[in-house]
Fold each of these.
Amino acid sequence: MTDADDAESRSATGDSDGSTSVVTTTGLTKEYGGRPIFDGVDLDINAGAMTAVIGPNGSGKTTLLKTLLGHVDPTAGTVTYTGPDVDRPMGYLPQEPAFRPQFTVSETVEFYASLVDASVDTEGLLREVNLYDARTRRVSALSGGMRRLLAVAQAVLGDPPVVCCDEPASGLDPSMARRVFESLAGRAADGMAVVVASHTLSLVETYADHVVILDAGGVAAAGSPAALIERYDAADLWDVYATVVDPATAGVSRRGDDDDTAERDAAASDPTADSGGDS
Amino acid sequence: MSPLAIMSTLIDRELRTAARTRSYYLLGLAVGAVLLGLTLGGGGAATGYIPAVVDLLLPLEILVPVVAVAIGYRAIPSDLDRGEVAMLDTYAVSPSAYVGAVYVGRAAVLSAIIGGALVAVGVVVAVTAAPDTGVFATQSGVDSPILFGRFLVVTLLFGNAILAVVVLASVVVATTRTAIVAVIAAVLAVVVGGEAAILLGVLDGVLDEATLQVALGLIPNSAYRGIVFETVVGVLSAGESGYASPLVSAVGLLLWTLVPLAAAAGLLRWRLR
């Protein structure tokens, strides 16, 4: 990690570019059975920005998100929420979301909407995630991708100041994946702090304001996509990733990550491919 | 949102989930058929409510825990597997409210299945038994639908206590697959293990006549049996009561309901952290 990365993992804390940090981690460390997942992670999650956490499988992305949410206790360090005092400070989209199969899409969203104080335009929300036409369908009849879209709607219900999304584009077709990222970027533009753990680097490069690359138990690099590309003299975020991530662990990532492999292979075989998107 | 409003929303979802689960209807039909078959086959239907109770008491000590396991073993593990509990945790839903709502929903299902089957049995007895079963109020010694109603209520108290144990055991394990094993082990430990412990206590002389009544009241099955003997069957043979203390037994069943639920909520809170 370079000095620039160190500074950038603390980037935009509300000091340099006017954005406001709503979650701060200091020296965040998590171990399982004595094996460190990550060690001494310092981050600022800013309101009005999408922060993407990327890294090889097993680098601690999901654990980091769960630690931010308070679902996992850190071994050391702190997570401090400094956002507004609301009933629901953080929304969450789990890695493999599912819902009760007996209910329709509308009923599921309305159930979660009834748990927040604010009135929610559930129809508008379903249109936003492209599920309005499927609103009367039972959850049991939805594809995996549609269930993920439903989980996206659930995550942003009531406009929590922070939303943590674990692989929001996993299992979605390219256009729907792009739509989900657009939707989350729109939420970020409206002031929400969006944290995304993702392997879809092309979408991260396009939509994220801040990227944190986890590897070998810590933050290997951090910054805006453009800054990282410039700093590492790279063609795109893929090149940054390949440069920064330990090849040994990156190999693990390539074997275990179909999204990454497919995207990279497609880009390599198609000279017209747009590295900035996967649609 | 107020905790009461959240609890109400969660209970509403549980009840609607139950109402849309077809297997519960099948389970209800099966339980009804078994109880009616036992009543008709045992002769209770032709002779009155108390004979029907005597016919059904022992089978219900087995059938009620089986129904409780079938209804409750995957309620919380399924939500955990789906990530719904983690999602609900981001709302102002406490583990206590969640566990309480799940329990109320499943208790309603158990009460509908067992209660519905027993009501059907009661109707059959009313139609087919001797004419003196129509007496509603008299001194002891006469069969009555009121006694059968007591039996029904006590059976539901017993079933809902076992259901609380099932809910607790299901939270202990990590996945839905292992939940069934943990739940069956827990129910066997409580139902069989409890009575075996009392038997050993009597044989070893640890339990005397006074402490035995208390011990019997603190084991769900013997508490259930004790209340039925004292307040339903024993009414026909006044002066020969004393098998168990109905008060201690009722407190025992209440404890077997509340303590496991509190433990389940605490355990879930710990699992989410």
Amino acid sequence: MHIPDGYLSPQTYIPLIGVFVATAAVAVRKVKNEVSARNIPYLGMAAAFAFIIMMFNLPVPGGTTGHAVGSAVIAILFGPWAATIAVSVALIIQALVFGDGGITAIGANCFNMAVFMPFVAYYLFKILSHNPAKKVRVYIAAFISGYIGLVFTALLTATELGIQPMIASTSDGKALYCPYDLSIAIPAMAIEHLLLFGIVEGIITALIVSYFLKNEPGIIYAFRKGGKNENQ
Amino acid sequence: MLSEKAVKMKINKLQKRILITLLVLCLITPAGILLPMVFNAGDAWGEWSAQTLKDLIGYVPKGLEKYSGVWNAPLPDYTLNTDDASVVHQSGYYIVSGLVGATATYIVMLLISKLIIRNGK
């Protein structure tokens, strides 16, 4: 899901850099107002976790590889805005130091995995689970938010790649950037994430949320936010 | 006062446990290169190198060719030596990359958080 350099046209990656920078600016303001200094160590660990979990490439036997991202669980535990910053830091270091994801595609990759995914996962979780006492429901909601969050993010990535042949081709019909159109990109990305990577993301999300529910329930952002006692 | 201390202690213990878990995860990251090898799986979809793409479709798209070399990462592909064929060595490089990357990410995120969060509650 880390789009490399050269797969997106400037018409795609430049606007996405703009959208990402604007969103990150809002995220900084939100995190400043709503995250307690006591949770700073957790944010560092969350970013490191996102970095590490993305190194676990999982194989589709005989086919491609993919991985979980960790954005869903970070969004549920520490809020979608904090997740935006934490996962962006991981993605930018992956691109700059390890060449995983392009430099020109940093905006696209951060928008997909660090903005879109945490917000989809977070609001899905909020819709499905309100009461931390109903534990089974919490676990199921966490699984679904991770699963759907990653699948939707894969679809968004596939869309960005799949529109490239329409945006830019040479006169003899050869692609300038990603050569595969939507009819190939969408099914390819959808199937592998529906059948394997999404399930792994869902399980990881459910396991970690259940761990925090047991050991540090007060910290879970999704259960603190949006209630009557919310101050911010 | 006592309870506040107890809360703090508990937090520290949990955080310590998380850090140890992250360290263990770093040490088992080679699963992320070994499993794809065992199951004969290649690149992630849409992340092929220019050369692989040429093998797939017969040409390298012009724009892709132009942009694909725009950045030379210091540790490309999470390895210290792309030419080293030894699986054991590559596993070691992968662990080192994981430790370096995760530590850098942790520190950068802590610094950013400390800069922006002023809320002492």
Amino acid sequence: MANKKQYIFDNPKNVKRLLTVFYVLCALLLLLDFVIDRHIYHPWENLWGFYPIYGFVGCVVLVFVAKWMRTFLMRPEDYYEKLEEARFQKDQQLTKGDNNVDA
Amino acid sequence: MWMLEIPPFVPFFIGAVIAAVTRGRLRGLVMVLIPVLSAIHLWTVPEGSHLQFAFLSYELIPYRVDKLSLMFGYVFHIAAFIAIIYALHVRDTVQQVAALMYAGSGLGAVFSGDLLSLFVFWELLAFTSVFLIWARRTQKAYTAGMRYLIIQVISGLLLLVGALFYAAENGTLAFGYIGLQGIAGWLIFIAFGIKCAFPFAHNWLTDAYPEATVTGTVFLSAFTSKVAVYSLARAYPGTELLIYIGAAMTCFPIFFAVIENDLRRVLAYSLINQVGFMVVGVGIGTALAINGAVSHAFNDVIFKGLLFMSMGAVLHMTGRINGSDLGGLYKTMPKTTILCIVGAASISAFPLFSGFVSKSMVMSAALENGHNWVWLMLLFASAGVFHHAGIKIPYFAFFAHDSGIRASDPPSNMLIAMFIAAALCVGIGVYPAALYSLLPYDTGYNPYDATHILAQTQLLFFSALAFVWLNLKNLYPPELRSTNIDVEWTYRRVLPAVWQGTVAMSQRVYGLFSQSVTRVFTLTTNYLAHKNAKISGLLSDKHPAGSMVLWVVVILASYLLLTFLQ
């Protein structure tokens, strides 16, 4: 395509900047754990960094399990259509005189 | 006031008739005005039963207004208004009429005060919405619509049979608390469960919604599942089983969503996940939990609609919806990108967005009532929904690798609709008191305390960190052109195979059977004929026809003689 315009994330520097800001925010949030006195409902919430760790580990586990699920769930894109179409064509052939002895 | 007696579905059905006979700008005007006028009318209606009559000794209440039904009534008007604006450019009369009928049926269902009226609207929801799927006019959409319709009708029939049992057991058809007692309670529970996409009964949703038209899916996402949530909240609050069903609903779809390629199907999975939160809330059944469930349904209609609209805009402008084909669209669709991110932030329950003020109510209620494991599952699901709906959707559609597609932002009616939805998401998130004032109970809940905000922000940021880390390490599963099998595999693959096998087998058995019968039959007749030939040679063997005539003459003559003898 002739579109040579540079967009904001075409520049790897900008991506890096965004990620740096994001890392700093993560670190800040973790540090806030020491500052903010939270009222808790559950003893686990008292563990240091419970929410950040749970979020991080939970998502990594989620992705790995989902990836593993692909091994037995994934089929070609036309998995259902192929079968349904094959059946459709078979029906069609029959009506077109598959049993016609003169053919 | 006579106006009181007009239930909200009536203007929508009248609108559908007008939409069927008008075209162009006039139809657009009528369609936009209907939800507005109907909403203004609904705003003035006080609580109570406004329409009731006797039918076969049962009291029917097609129009009953209370806080619970009003909440859904309001949000259905908002959803209809937004989706109608989004669909203003559509010239297909079938879709426009079906959409209005569908919205009207949803409103009819939530204002039904008895089970029979509920059943009527329940089935109307199915029969009107299926046209929004068929309107795609592809072979795939046709078969998906058929499967959708069959499952919805089964749900309706269960509801009808359950209602009849209920009437026999209790002598009334009133639609109130039912509970899991007796066969009626269970039948109606299963009927609601199918429409609510309970695990194993959920596949109609992820099968059909992504096959509907661009605008049709926006309508579909708003009504059917929320009517089911409303019905559960009305008939089964505090049913413990619902807590576990709901918790399962929040968790299992996110795994499918992570590996799904069709981005609208990803949203369909996250719709089940969000409904799971509501079901948990209904199951806990305390004032806070019901408030949470209802307000989350309210918010979900808007932010899920916004997400479906943004993906619809992508499909509309590029003709593609698979994550593997998209990417880099932020360059030429900046407005859609931003609106989609607002929706993503809302569904992920970021502070200052609508999801935050409602989802946290359900989570707090789960903790308060000692459902620690359920709470952990909900927390995992919150992280997971951010992962697939909050990050995956915008990332793979608008960022990721540059697909080279340079589609522009969609037509302005679509942008306006998305903008209204986004404004509501932010508005409710910033000023939740407006939403809370509509809720059925007054709990004095405040989502904005430091603990909540910090906990939720930490959870979300570190979920995002996990995504960034996995992506940088190339561990994130790439978007692949594929189909992932789900429960539908049983009825799209196994059942047909079993059926074909059975048919082939029965044909073979029948063939063998008829062959042997024919053989036995021929043998028997041959045997008899042989015997016959031996014993009756005199009477049956090779006499000419003339001799037969002679004998007949002899017999007749003897009859004649006998008459003379008398």
